[in-house]
Design a protein that fits this description.
CATH superfamily of the largest domain: Histone deacetylase domain
CATH architecture of the largest domain: 3-Layer(aba) Sandwich
Bound molecules: 7-[(3-aminopropyl)amino]-1,1,1-trifluoroheptane-2,2-diol, zinc ion
Strand content: 5-15%
CATH class of the largest domain: Alpha Beta
Helix content: 25-40%
Number of domains: 2
Number of helices: 18
Shape: globular
CATH topology of the largest domain: Arginase, Chain A
Largest sheet: 8 strands, parallel
Length: 658
């Protein structure tokens, strides 16, 4: 099933550069590509990918997005003199031309199309195209910001036209706003465009009013354009993850794309001179992972920006290694999102609240103005002095065994899994032997000898208790226990902080829960995919990330009612935490679910759930109450900044009250 990862690369795209002095363009150098590719080779990642040849985009491909006039104008550039090139360049902003850039721009767009073809025909599951020039700024009739043709926009139109794709999600994690992509799909409900970008209340390039959160799309495309403006520099892992959990993922699951395209710019990582952000290269492992269960795993990433060569190559490696299916490292320094990020988050959620049922409960726009007009003096003093330093991401070693299973006699071993049992044969096939196998399995997961595990047991509650207690008390490790279905749980100790228990089940008698026991009650239980996914994305994932467990114990109780699709999404998404150390426990009788669950643990994408209906109003309200209660302890659950007196007075440009 796991059909591999494509890598598209062609040295030809290093063969153009800036030929005159222009401080705005000097960062866009050929070494960006060489450094990225060399790092993939050096880390043994290029070898693990399927190498797909690059082709030139044809006129017809380019005309899917650009005007004939513009294309013809670009076609003249290979024959221009240096002076003529400079003059040609002057009609556009922050871009340069070179006699070979037209050829490279055709290859860049063509690489994106080859990648789409490879993914859509099933030759590979996903992939990355390493290209220059980038694309997301170029417009229908204009070059802009180092971009000549809009590689990803062309790829999206092409996917619709050639492969009959109905819904495309474009995730633009580059630190600049892809205004070219926005322009292209503004009124198209078939393409959902998401971009976060350094904005600073319109002070940052490209300085457009329409990059703000209130540009939500037009006409039929209203709601299908999502802008998250960053009004401060220094955004960190927690800021990025919180936007994924509280905006992008819920909307993306509701939208249900057939294909995911990523404008993969790495200038949003630490050390980048343009972005000035503070998210580590490791965050791209998670951003990638979190998108890999959408669209049946069909994900095409196309390089955009990234100007610190060290940060760029580390980020590219994190992305590719995740596409290849290796478990992600725990994200470093996950505190809560900063105030400014929370303001942005609130505004985006409020602006999109009318268009997406997953945001129905989002708070209103704050009473103070946080849009373009709000300019604070203190902001300038925020600039950090000097080059930041950050540790090189740890080598990610995939354990020798990916998924080990403990199954009763007669249940056949799923493809690709390793049968596992403890050596003590005192009670062959019996409960004691099964339990001792489970404990040993967890120990081997903690030693990173095995990545994940799956067991079918006769008493799932009992097995859960034993594994949880053993992990906390004997191994001294932290477990996130996710219990799907079931009723009240017999005293699982959660007070020592070593176990965080989240139970998702049917609405029953009100339980208070606590900091480490989170009862998620859904009116129709886990059988309602919308409510279930709402809880998973907005509650469980942020909790899981913040808790940063050593082990995820995922328990499927008898008669949980969870549908296979939602269950597999949960299994897939949770592997982003605890370095993929997930142990799934299922009750005997659920044999039918063994093979699909195993395949998810092996790294296969979950099948799409279909566009989600609106969750039940009662569930949404209950989840919101839970989120509000828990956000005090778990900052990644916050979706709004507290409306402080300071924020208000800063807005009015008044001094904070004395
Ligand atoms: C230099 C000002 C530079 C232009 C920034 C262009 C950014 C391009 C990019 C792309 F992905 F397209 F490459 N202003 N101090 O990174 O978004
Ligand atoms: Zn950029």
């Amino acid at each position: 099933m796991n059909a591999g990862t494509a890598l598209l690369h062609d040295e030809e795209m290093t063969k153009y550069k800036l030929l005159w002095v222009d401080p705005a363009c000097e960062i866009e150098v050929p070494e960006r590509l060489t450094a990225s590719h060399d790092a993939l080779v050096r880390n043994g990642l290029a070898d693990r990918c399927v190498s797909v040849p690059v082709r030139e985009a044809t006129d017809a491909d380019i005309l899917l997005v650009h005007s004939r006039e513009y294309l013809e104008a670009v076609k003249t550039t290979p024959d221009l003199t240096l002076e003529e090139l400079q003059e040609f360049t002057l009609q556009f902003g922050d871009v340069y031309f070179h006699p070979n850039i037209y050829r490279c721009a055709k290859l860049a767009a063509g690489a994106a199309l080859q990648l789409v073809d490879s993914v859509m025909t099933g030759k590979v599951r996903n992939g990355l195209a390493l290209v220059r020039p980038p694309g997301h700024h170029s417009m229908h009739g204009a070059a802009s910001g180092f971009c000549v043709f809009n590689n990803v926009a062309i790829a999206a139109r092409y996917a619709k036209q050639t492969h009959g794709v109905k819904r495309v999600l474009i995730v633009d994690w580059d630190v600049h706003h892809g205004q070219g992509v926005q322009e292209c799909f503004e009124d198209d409900p078939g393409v959902l465009y998401f971009s976060w970008h350094r904005y600073e209340h319109q002070k940052f390039w490209p300085n457009l009013r329409e990059s703000d959160y209130d540009s939500v799309g037009k006409g039929e495309g209203t709601g299908f354009n999502i802008n998250v403006p960053w009004n401060r520099v220094g955004m960190k892992n927690a800021d990025y993850l919180s936007v994924f959990c509280h905006v992008l993922l819920p909307v993306a699951y509701e939208f249900c794309p057939d294909l995911v395209l990523v404008c993969a710019g790495f200038d949003s990582a630490i050390g980048d001179p343009e972005g000035q952000m503070s998210a580590g290269p490791d965050i791209f492992a998670h951003l990638t992972h979190l998108l890999m269960n959408l669209a049946g795993g069909r994900l095409c990433a196309v390089l955009e920006g990234g100007y610190n060569l060290t940060s760029l190559q580390q980020s590219v490696c994190q992305t590719v290694q995740t596409l290849l299916g290796d478990p992600a490292p725990p994200p470093e320094n996950l505190d809560g999102p900063c105030q400014s990020a929370l303001e942005s988050l609130r505004c985006v959620r409020a602006a999109h609240q009318p268009h997406w049922s997953c945001l129905k409960h989002a708070a209103e726009l704050p009473s103070f103005e946080v849009s373009t007009k709000r300019i604070k003096d203190e902001e300038k003093s925020q600039q950090t002095a000097g080059e930041p330093v950050w540790p090189e991401p740890r080598k990610r070693v995939a354990p020798p065994v990916r998924t080990a299973v403990v199954l009763p006699d007669g249940v056949s071993l799923p493809d690709g899994c390793k049968a596992f049992s403890s050596l003590e044969d005192s009670d062959p096939g019996g409960a004691v032997r099964t339990l001792s196998s489970l404990l040993l399995l967890v120990e081997k997961m903690q030693k990173n000898e095995i990545c994940s595990g799956l067991a079918l047991v006769s008493d799932v509650s009992m097995a859960m208790m034993c594994v949880a207690q053993h992990t906390a008390a004997v191994l001294n490790k932290r477990a996130l226990v996710v219990c799907v279905g079931g009723s009240r749980l017999p005293g699982l100790i959660t007070e020592d902080g070593k176990t965080l228990l989240v139970q998702m089940s049917r609405d029953e008698a009100d339980e208070q829960g606590g900091r480490c026991f989170v009862p998620v009650r859904l009116k129709k239980g886990c059988s309602d995919a919308s409510g279930f996914m709402q809880a998973v994305l907005g509650l469980l994932l942020p909790l899981g990330y913040q808790y940063d467990p050593d082990l995820v114990l995922l328990v499927r109780m008898e008669g949980s009612g969870v549908c296979d699709g939602a269950w597999l999404q949960l299994t897939g998404l949770l592997q982003g935490v605890a370095q993929g150390h997930t142990l799934v426990l299922m009750q005997k009788g659920e044999e039918a679910c063994v093979a699909p669950t195993a395949s998810s643990l092996l790294g296969d994408a979950a099948p799409p759930l279909g566009p989600l209906d609106a969750p039940l109003a009662e569930d949404v309200e209950a989840l919101e109450r839970l989120r509000v209660r828990l956000q005090v302890d778990w900052k990644l659950l916050q979706t709004t900044a507290p409306e402080t007196e300071e924020a208000r007075s800063a807005d009015a440009n008044l001094p904070p009250f004395v």
